[in-house]
Structures are given as structure tokens and as C-alpha cells.
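Q: Please design a sequence for this.
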């Protein structure tokens, strides 16, 4: 392993996938709480690259280019493909790892040669790993700086050899640090290995919007933050970008105390759990406990999302309740025939009882 004089090394400028935001040949970290659109954001970037459309700030892309997406959280055949279609992607240019039943996830660093082979075969310039901790070898201690570096260094070397951009996603920890650099879960080595780092957080200036903020850039000054809003209904199929935001990544974490983060996680859980349709109240509460959501936070999330409660067998000791998202309707096969007929009566009685309780 000989040393080489600097004079013999050929100079090469930084190549950009997204000018000043995403460098080719290097890794990028994207941190943020669940439910804030990290996956939507990366799919939007894949879709733009596939058609050669400009990036969200108007910067030109490379032209039609290929991407690889490794995800362990969303289904490729239903959720991801539908979202890509809504975003106007060229499906032939986005390569998904489709997990078969019982199949293990690809693991890194042990399967980095496999990923490099896939990058070479597909010609991908953008590789997304969502979330990175799900794809690490089981032996990697994610809280250890040395082990995280040893796990990510082969990925970084692969990105250099293939001149592709690797974007890894990660959730936030529960600390209340005012520095975005320290809010990513597990070891800070995840950010140290990456040359650019982003964070997404709720926009303090506009309800329903999310800010994408850069908090590390080894090649240029920090770039302007951008804000976007996610689809709010099934009829909406694309992100809406709203231009630059004055908020920095440090401001975003300072605006989000632990209580708000817990509520955001609870809202994301509830919306996801109820998305397929009405669920029994007891099932919702049991799943919430498994996700570490307290009863009080669950009640706040229910109010925040305007969850409706439908009563079944309301006149018997075996009363059941179903939770419904706004716009959802109670399915006939879930409803007791007697209660369906008497529901207007019970609704009025409950309303009268609620009014009496106020006096």
C-alpha cells in the first residue's frame, strides 16, 4: 500500500447530482421523524431524475438517469409503485428491491459487492437505503462509532468508484439537543462519514408544511432550506414545493420539544394504522402500546387527526368502538344489524347525556 505524492494525483472537481445539495461519489444522510415525508421526498427525487426534470429549487438535473431504491418499510408493488406513478416517474429507470416472503434484507457491509454489481448493471447514479439501520449486518453495534464507520466505509468507497450518490435515511432520537447534528439516532459516526447531511421537520411558519434543511456540507456553504407539503388525500399523488424557507435545521429541532415529537410520532402511527379502514378501539390501543405511545398521547393524536368513534352494541355490556379517519365510513359487515337500525337513537341519547354532563 504505497504512498503517492500529491503532485502525482490528478485533480478532479466535485461532481454534483443536485448542485450544492447532493454530491456524486459520496454519501448523504437524511434525518427526520416518521410521517414527515422522507420517503416521499426521496421518491420525488428519483422521479425527477428518471425524466430529467429540474430539482425542487429549479436546478437542472443530469437528464434522464437511473436510481436504485432499497426500502424495508413500504411495499414495492402497492405503495411505492403507486407513489412513483403519481409523481410522474419513468418506471423503467427506477430499480426496486422486491422482497419475497421470508427473504432476508440485503446487509451491509457484507453485501456491498452485491450492491456495487447492481449499480454497475443498472447504471444508477442515485442509491437510496431506507432506513440504513435496517440494512446493516446484525453484528454492527449502531451505537459504536468505530463499528458504524467500518460498516459505512465500504459503501462510501463503492460510491466513489461508481460515482453515484448514496442517500441513507434515519429517524431522530428522543434527545432535546438544539443542534441538528446530534439529533439523528445512534452514533454520530453516521453523520461523520457523510459529506452532506439533511434534516426534515415541521414548518414552524406554516401548518401542514415540512422543511428540508441542510446542516452539514463539506464542499460548499450550507444551502437554502426548502419547504414542501405532502399529499393530504388519496386523490393527491404528488408533493407540492413552496420555495425557500428561512428556517435552519437547528431551528427546526429547537421548535420541536419532546412532547411535540411524541405527538408527531403518535399521529403518524394512527394515520398509518387506520389507513386501510376502521379498526376496533381495543386493537388501536394495543398497537399503540406496542409502539410506545401512551394513552394520553394517543388521545391527543386522536383529537389532532379528528378521528371519529363509531359505537357498536352500545346497549350491551359488550360494547365495541371503531376508530375512523375523516372521510372513512363504517363498513356494513362490521356493524351489528340491531345497532345499525338504532344508531340514530343512541347518537341522540349520547348527545343529550353529554349536554347534561356540562350542566
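A: Design:
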Amino acid at each position: 500500500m504505497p504512498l503517492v505524492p500529491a503532485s502525482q494525483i490528478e485533480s478532479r472537481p466535485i461532481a454534483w447530482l443536485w448542485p450544492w445539495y447532493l454530491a456524486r461519489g459520496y454519501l448523504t444522510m437524511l434525518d427526520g421523524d416518521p410521517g414527515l415525508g422522507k420517503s416521499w421526498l426521496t421518491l420525488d427525487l428519483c422521479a425527477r431524475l428518471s425524466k430529467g426534470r429540474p430539482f425542487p429549487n429549479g436546478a437542472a438535473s443530469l437528464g434522464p438517469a437511473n436510481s436504485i431504491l432499497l426500502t424495508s418499510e413500504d411495499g414495492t408493488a402497492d405503495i411505492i409503485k403507486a407513489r412513483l406513478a403519481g409523481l410522474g416517474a419513468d418506471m423503467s429507470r427506477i430499480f426496486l428491491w422486491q422482497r419475497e416472503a421470508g427473504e432476508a434484507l440485503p446487509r451491509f457491509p457484507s453485501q456491498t459487492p452485491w450492491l456495487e454489481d447492481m449499480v454497475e448493471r443498472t447504471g444508477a447514479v442515485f442509491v437510496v437505503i431506507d432506513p440504513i439501520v435496517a440494512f446493516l449486518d446484525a453484528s454492527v453495534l449502531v451505537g459504536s462509532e468505530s463499528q458504524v464507520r467500518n460498516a459505512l466505509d465500504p459503501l462510501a468507497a463503492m460510491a466513489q468508484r461508481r460515482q453515484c450518490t448514496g442517500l441513507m435515511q434515519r429517524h431522530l432520537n428522543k434527545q432535546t439537543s438544539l443542534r441538528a447534528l446530534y439529533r439523528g439516532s445512534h452514533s454520530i459516526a453516521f453523520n461523520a462519514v457523510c459529506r452532506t447531511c439533511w434534516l426534515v421537520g415541521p414548518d414552524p411558519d406554516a401548518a401542514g408544511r415540512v422543511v428540508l434543511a441542510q446542516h452539514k456540507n463539506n464542499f460548499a456553504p450550507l444551502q437554502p432550506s426548502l419547504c414542501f407539503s405532502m399529499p393530504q388525500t388519496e386523490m393527491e399523488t404528488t408533493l407540492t414545493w413552496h420555495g425557500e424557507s428561512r428556517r435552519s435545521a437547528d431551528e427546526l429541532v429547537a421548535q420541536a420539544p419532546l412532547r411535540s415529537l411524541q405527538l408527531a410520532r403518535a399521529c403518524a402511527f394512527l394515520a398509518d394504522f387506520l389507513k386501510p379502514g376502521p379498526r376496533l378501539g381495543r386493537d388501536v390501543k394495543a398497537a399503540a402500546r406496542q409502539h410506545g405511545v401512551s394513552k394520553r398521547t394517543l388521545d391527543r393524536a386522536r383529537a389532532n387527526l379528528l378521528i371519529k368513534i363509531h359505537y357498536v352494541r352500545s346497549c350491551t355490556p359488550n360494547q365495541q368502538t371503531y376508530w375512523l379517519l375523516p372521510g372513512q365510513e363504517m363498513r356494513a359487515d362490521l356493524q351489528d344489524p340491531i345497532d345499525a337500525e338504532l344508531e340514530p337513537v343512541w347518537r341522540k341519547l349520547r348527545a343529550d347525556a353529554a349536554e347534561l354532563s356540562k350542566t
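Q: Thanks. Anything notable?
A: The domain at 259-358 is CATH 1.10.10 (Arc Repressor Mutant, subunit A). The longest strand covers residues 210-217.
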